[in-house]
Design brief:
The structure holds 2 protein chains of 2 kinds. By secondary structure, chain A is of the alpha/beta class. Chain A has 6 helices and 7 strands, in the order αβαβαβαβαβββα. By secondary structure, chain B is mostly beta strands. Chain B has a single domain, classed as Roll (Ubiquitin-like (UB roll)), CATH 3.10.20. Chain B has 1 helix and 7 strands, in the order E-E-E-H-E-E-E-E. Chain B has one helix spanning 19-25, and strands spanning 2-5, 8-11, 16-18, 33-37, 40-41, 51-53, 57-62. In chain B, the strands form 2 sheets. A 5-stranded mixed β-sheet of chain B has the order 2-1-7-4-5, with no helix packed on it. In chain B, strands 3-6 form a two-stranded antiparallel ribbon. The longest helix of chain B is centred in the N-terminal third of the chain and has 7 residues, at 19-25. The chains are: A alpha/beta, B mainly beta. The interface between A and B is medium-sized, with 35 and 17 residues.
């Protein structure tokens, strides 16, 4: 597929992103760059200075709603992308309502309880939807520990090991790797497996 | 029996066990766990009744913070 053919498909697609922190903001940017038609983004938080070590915001956006700031940044990259924003703390009924029409849903929350909540909601009420989760991205290094696996319509990206703590902060490189893996998994679902790409591991 | 646990083949002496027994044997004590058996999500309230048997594909996912 040429990039023009890729864009022809992607412009008809909608992706929901739950959370606009390190995973959500970077994943949204990757999808906007490749020509996705519509993004549905949700987050209740404001941009803080401490977010700038990994999240796709700028210093002059501190204090803005994350969804508003992200929408601005996405338009600066690709003015054709349509963006629906929801500045709410998502609960299960919101997830079903807001993301029910999306082709794929990306989980980009930071708290484990929220990760479980969306998994449970999608599994029970939107069982036909793929859910792409990010699990384990704190710290630095350990490139080979970051991976993805799939079980039915659930895709997990991350090292599944490193939680965030004082001594293990989330930083741009690893968070960005996992966010972009999530975007990459979205493309594989929307475009199919790339037949022109070698998927076997080098021995 | 032989099962696939997190993409790896593992052999157990028991012919079958419950999800709770599997968690005990493997010492998975983390509180935010997601368990899928053959792609099906197992609710926490069913850990004592849900059975894992020969040939099953089991996913045990630790939901940790970060995002």
């Amino acid at each position: 597929m040429t990039f023009d053919e890729v864009k022809q498909i992607l412009k008809t697609k909608t992706v929901g992103i739950a959370g606009c922190g390190g995973l959500g903001s970077n994943c949204a940017v990757a999808l906007a760059r490749v020509g996705l038609g519509r993004l549905v983004i949700a987050d209740f938080d404001l941009v803080e200075e401490g977010n700038l070590n990994r999240q796709f915001y700028f210093y002059d956006q501190i204090g803005m709603l994350k969804v508003a700031a992200l929408k601005q940044n996405l338009f600066r990259i690709n003015p054709d992308v349509r963006v629906n924003t929801f500045d709410i703390r998502l609960c299960q009924s919101d997830i079903i309502e807001i993301f029910g029409k999306c082709d794929v849903i990306v989980e980009a929350f930071d708290k484990p309880e929220m990760k479980y909540m969306i998994l449970d909601a999608v599994h029970n009420y939107l069982p036909a939807k793929h859910l792409i989760m990010g699990v384990g991205m704190a710290g630095w290094g350990g490139n080979n520990l970051i991976r993805s696996r799939q079980s039915d319509k659930l895709v997990i990206c991350g090292d599944e090991t490193n939680a965030i703590s004082d001594k293990c902060p989330p930083l741009a490189p690893r968070v960005g790797v996992v966010a972009n893996m999530q975007a990459n998994a979205v493309l594989e679902i929307l475009l199919g497996i790339n037949e022109h790409q070698n998927h076997s591991e080098r021995q | 029996m032989k099962i696939i646990l997190n993409n790896k083949e593992e052999v157990f002496e028991a012919v079958q066990f419950t999800v709770n027994e599997l968690l005990h044997i493997k010492k998975f004590t983390f509180k935010m766990l997601v368990i899928k058996v053959n792609g099906k999500l197992i609710k926490k309230s069913d850990y004592d009744s849900a059975i894992v048997k020969n040939g099953d594909d089991v996913m045990v996912l630790h939901l940790i913070s970060g995002g």
